[in-house]
């Protein structure tokens, strides 16, 4: 076989590969998909008889988790139970509720329905206002209001 023949075969292979690659669909863009539970079994958490629960799913290796937990702990009262669920201490609860990102904070009513949630760091004012609004709708100013 001559050198010209080898060059022709190499070009045909290159053209074939190029055609196959062009027809292949591009991969879909990466999708974020952290899940936040919409319902909890209040029996899995402290003070199930308390009207409200603020549950903070954390990890010991997460710097933001301690900050979020500290902001939430000041909300503890007779009406609001606050519980920090660290992955190292209670991996079963993280798995049960499919927590795949921390900090994840949920505000839960007496039936176990998640009324509001936060993923990642947050301002204390936003958290406290969210709990106030869940407990008493209309108690916080409308953020879209011009007043």
| Separation, N- and C-terminal Cα atoms | 85 Å
Rg, please? 26 Å
Query: Judging from the principal axes of the Cα atoms, what is the shape?
Result: elongated
- Annotated CATH architecture of the domain at 42-135: 3-Layer(aba) Sandwich
Q: State mean pLDDT (0 to 100 scale).
A: 89
- Write out the CATH superfamily name of the domain at 42-135: Glutaredoxin
The count of helical stretches stands at 4
How are strands sequenced across the largest beta sheet? 2-1-3-4
The CATH class of the domain at 42-135 is: Alpha Beta
Structural class from helices and strands?
alpha+beta
Q: Could you spell the SSE succession in H and E letters?
A: HEHEHEEH
Poorly predicted sequence stretches spanning 5 or more consecutive residues: none
Number of strands: 4
Helix coverage percent of residues? 25-40%
Domain Thioredoxin: 50-132
Pfam family, one: Thioredoxin
What features would you describe in this structure?
The structure is a single chain. This protein is α+β, with helices and mostly antiparallel strands. The longest helix is centred in the first third of the chain and has 21 residues, at 3-23. The protein has a domain at 42-135: Glutaredoxin. The chain has helices spanning 3-23, 63-73, 91-96, 124-135, and strands spanning 52-58, 80-86, 104-108, 114-119.
């Amino acid at each position: 076989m001559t050198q010209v023949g080898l060059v022709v075969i190499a070009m045909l292979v290159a053209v074939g590969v190029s055609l196959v690659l062009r027809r292949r669909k591009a991969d879909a863009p990466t999708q974020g998909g952290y899940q936040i539970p919409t319902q909890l079994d209040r029996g899995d958490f402290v003070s199930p008889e308390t009207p409200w629960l603020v549950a903070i799913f954390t990890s010991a290796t997460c710097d933001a988790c301690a900050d979020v937990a500290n902001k939430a702990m000041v909300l503890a009262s007779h009406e609001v139970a606050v519980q920090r669920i660290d992955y190292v201490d209670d991996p079963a609860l993280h798995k049960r509720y499919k927590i795949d990102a921390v900090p994840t904070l949920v505000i839960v009513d007496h039936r176990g329905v998640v009324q509001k949630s936060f993923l990642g760091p947050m301002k204390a004012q936003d958290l406290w206002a969210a709990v106030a609004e869940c407990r008493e709708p209309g108690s916080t100013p409308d953020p879209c209001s011009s007043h």
